[in-house]
Amino acid sequence: MPSYDVNFVRDRIMNELSGAGSCGGYRSMWHSLRLQGIQVPRKIVEDMTRELDPEGCENRRTRRLLRRRYRFSGPNQIWHVYGYVKLKPYGFPIHGCIDGRSRRIMWLNVTKSSNNPDVIAKFYLDCVMDFNGCPEKLRTDCGTENRVMAAMQCTLRDDIQAYKYGTSPANQRIEGWWAFYRRNRSSWWMDFF
Hints:
Pfam families: rva_4. This is Integrase core domain-containing protein. The protein has helices at about 5-15, 25-35, 40-50, 55-60, 115-130, 145-155, 170-190; strands spanning about 80-85, 95-100, 105-110, 135-140, 165. By secondary structure, it is an alpha/beta fold. The chain has two domains: about 5-60; about 80-190, Ribonuclease H-like superfamily/Ribonuclease H (Nucleotidyltransferase, domain 5, 2-Layer Sandwich). It has a five-stranded mixed sheet with strand order 3-2-1-4-5, sandwiched between helices. β2 and β3 form a beta hairpin. α2 (about 25-35) crosses α3, α3 packs across α4 (about 55-60) and α5 (about 115-130) packs parallel to α6. It is elongated, with a radius of gyration of 22 Å.
């Protein structure tokens, strides 16, 4: 016997589907129900959502992103570097680097300025010294704060191709980690401030 009222859950899902909840999938529906204090297994929410909104489920399925394969030969092949500015308005800019393969955090530092190229270069150099080596490639966005670090990477590897600029969304490893960080840590601090 389930510990929840099936009809009540069905009504709540219908209510969500009639508003902004129609944009999300069953996972966001499940989270929405949990926020309302309704504890239901995710599989039940998935089944009910498919039953109540088959057209919406199909539309969301066809717009699903096709993920690219992330190829790497091993640890320290590529480090992804990026600053986290969500806490910057509160005086806490954070700068971080993650290894693309192992997803090990190479550095994660709160600093006075995440825009100063010398500060970012020091984070990089300290990490290189701590690990007695640098990655084959370093990936960042095109920000001016990365120019000294880029020069250091190319010099240490003796290869102009050892540094790769790209858009922030394309820097997927660190962007994914920042999304995780926001969900699990920084959103609490943002609410606190």
